[in-house]
Amino acid sequence: MSKVTDRSHQISVVPLDKNYNVGAYSVEGSVDYEDLVKNFGVLPISKELEDRLSAAAGGDLHFMIRRGIYFAHRDLPWLLDQYEKGNKFYVYTGIAPSGGMTIAHLMSFTMAQWLQEKFDAEVLIQIPDEEKFLARKEMGLTLERTHDLAYEDALNIAALGFDPQKTKIFTDTEYAGVMYKQAVRVSKHITFSIIKDAFGFGNDSNIGSIFYTSMQAVPAFLKSVQKGKNIPCLIPLGIDQDVHFRVARNAIEKLGYYKPAIMHSKFMPSLNGSPKMSSSDPNNTIYLDDSPEAVVKKVNKAITGQQSTAELQRKLGGDPEKCAVCQYYKYMFEPDDAKLAMIFEGERKGTLLAGEHKKDLAQKINSFLSAHRERKSKLKDRMDEFMLKG
Amino acid sequence: MSKVTDRSHQISVVPLDKNYNVGAYSVEGSVDYEDLVKNFGVLPISKELEDRLSAAAGGDLHFMIRRGIYFAHRDLPWLLDQYEKGNKFYVYTGIAPSGGMTIAHLMSFTMAQWLQEKFDAEVLIQIPDEEKFLARKEMGLTLERTHDLAYEDALNIAALGFDPQKTKIFTDTEYAGVMYKQAVRVSKHITFSIIKDAFGFGNDSNIGSIFYTSMQAVPAFLKSVQKGKNIPCLIPLGIDQDVHFRVARNAIEKLGYYKPAIMHSKFMPSLNGSPKMSSSDPNNTIYLDDSPEAVVKKVNKAITGQQSTAELQRKLGGDPEKCAVCQYYKYMFEPDDAKLAMIFEGERKGTLLAGEHKKDLAQKINSFLSAHRERKSKLKDRMDEFMLKG
Asked: How big is the CA angle at A112 (ends A106 and A116), to the nearest 5 degrees?
């Protein structure tokens, strides 16, 4: 049973008697996703909804949806209704820079890019360079540092293959000329009580971190402001970020805009099996700028669901659900369901041994990272095409 | 004895047993300025300091300083030390748009312009178009309305005769591209506890109004940021605004900039003798766009310190301290001390009767407003020279 910090001061949406918590600034314990869906008031993505999404996407469904990694949503059927009526949506997602970007950070951008391809969607990417500067004092980040990190993140994101014509990226401090006015409009509908309950902030929280969620809300309706008519918005995000929009959706509706639809993903586990890969635990995290040697070394230390010896593993088999290597294939590195099934089967039946298993994954990761580095070097002088300022 | 609203939830700098209060969002009761100086921890402007200021200004002293209307300060001797060392200061002041601008609003701009003239100072003027939108819900202001009002205010200010080469005006929403990043830096050093105590905000306050003071802090060090070296700043303001800087000065110092010096003015009384002219009491307030007839009508209803009949007044005389007409001469419309002394003397001795007294003042006000309107009409197509965006 994992220890969960005291949150009695907070009207948490995850009840206090649970052994896990999912907050915007920390995820603790072993997350019970089925339980979480009920507590957050979101809906699971049903088979029927999957089929509808697949049909709208031209008969394709991203493996992260097929595999239940994107597992919950808000208002997705409404978004598809709008789409079917010819009312196209745009996609909004983002990342708060705090250090090297990890492969887990790619989940929402991978989904955003898929949505762009399948639904011809414009994509708006927020890099809130003030967020962790304000809310994570213990990190000792300066705004100069988060600014540099933001530009590293932007290049990493662009290099996933976004269409520069339809994808715009901005940092909050550089796009504040546009953002602040709209954040002010949002902020008028959010009291400190709401923020206290939603984020667990208290009287000792700084007033920048208290205001911040207003800035995160803006891109969810900004295209409607700019185009002078209501345009649906879809946000793919890790479910820990849902709280920002639980707060903002009401405010956005009061301003007369559509509430954004949301698709929620589970957390990619860390290499040691912790339920959420964290950029602050470097040994159990794959960074996009890890060297091939570092990847091999880290993957070699990854937890597997296997028995203690090769002999026992051949005899008894292992548990792919507890095996970080299997999970990395599932979350990111094996898009082919049939091949993934073979890997899981090998793990389960004991025919796949740890050494070989890890060697294969390290190779897949390194070949992904190497191609990504190559795309980055081609794009690095073209980032002006992506960046918004104003 | 004036009634003062409950402020027991607030660690007010004006103790709870006083019969007045001076807060950023309301002034109540009959302000005891001598007592206020002690409670706010500011210093009175001494005769010695007046002399020093006059010497630095080339042997001149604005009548508002001579007459104790600007009566208190923070760090003014330090500012003059810097000035004498060749380290010139700039001037920062502003106005939160909420409705028509009144003559009382001119006090800080009049002082700013005098400082520009005498000290060759650059002037930076903030028009926080979000402030009252956020903090004064009952006013029902939209951001579109405050934006329009901001531009009216900017023209009214520029027409006082500021040098367009050395005077820049901006609205917060339009200059947020520059302002927000610096406000974020300030906000990290201000907790909700501080804001609660300083402004009397509570859990039901919106998060925009909680953040706002960070924006008001920025112009006090912005030139230092922009020029890459520490430049002294002097802020002339009504003493009700001191609280913003009581909070911000510590934060600004933590960021490594000079704390701004401040000159505090008393409040211009309203025509009915209330201690502070308020734009929300139109009958007792002179607006810059009042017609000549409206001015005559309002001044005719002004309170005087005179006896109930002309006969009694001739016999007993009146009290210029209680006479709004005398006070308007003192605060704004009679810069000549000898002439002002004659007016006060006439009131005191009963030789000056109400009708004549009021007629003269109405004429002075109307001739000021007429000249001001003329300067406005000449400037109205040249406001781009003053306005900052970014």
From this structure: 140
B233 with B330, same domain? no
Residue A161 corresponds to which tokens in the numbers above? 């293959």
User: What's the confidence (pLDDT) of residue B8?
Assistant: 42
Whether A205 and B195 lie within 8 Å, measured CB to CB: no
Which of A134, A177, A193 shows the shortest C-beta gap to B187? Answer: A134
Backbone φ and ψ of B167, nearest 5°: -135, 125
Q: What is the pLDDT of residues B364-383, one digit of tens each?
A: 999 999 999 999 999 999 99
With a cut of 70, which residues of chain A have pLDDT below it?
1-12
What DSSP designation does A102 have?
A: B
Quick one: pLDDT band at residue B275, thresholds 50, 70, 90? confident
Shared-domain flag, residues B243 and B106: yes
Domain match, A74 and A115 both: yes
Mean pLDDT for B312-324 is 88
pLDDT confidence bin for B162, thresholds 50/70/90: very high
Q: Which residues of A touch B180 (CB under 8 A)?
A: 172-173, 176, 179-180
ipTM (interface pTM) = 0.94
| pLDDT tens per residue across span B132-153 | 999 988 889 999 999 999 999 9
Number of domains in chain A: 2
The CA-atom distances, in angstroms, between A189 and each of A203, A250, B98, B228, B316 are 20, 8, 20, 38, 58
pLDDT tens digits for range B48-99: 999 999 999 999 999 999 999 999 999 999 999 999 999 999 999 999 998 8
> Which residue from A minimizes the CA distance to B174?
A177
* Domain end among A266, A294, A315: A266
Assigned domain for B45 exists: yes
- Backbone region of residue A367 per phi and psi (left: phi > 0; alpha: psi in -120 to 50; beta: other values): alpha
Q: Which residues of chain B does A188 touch, with a Cβ-Cβ cutoff of 8 Å?
A: 133-134, 137, 206, 208
Which pTM does this prediction carry?
A: 0.94
- Pick the residue with more confidence: B217 or A315? B217
CB B36 within 8 A of CB B14: yes
Cβ-defined contact of A176 to B181 (cutoff 8 Å)? yes
Q: Is residue B367 part of a domain?
A: yes
Same domain, A214 and A319: no
Residue A128 DSSP class: -
Record: contact B180-A174, CB cut-off 8 A: no
Residues facing residue A261 across a β-bridge: A234
User: Where in the sequence is the domain holding A329, given as residue range(s)?
Assistant: 282-379
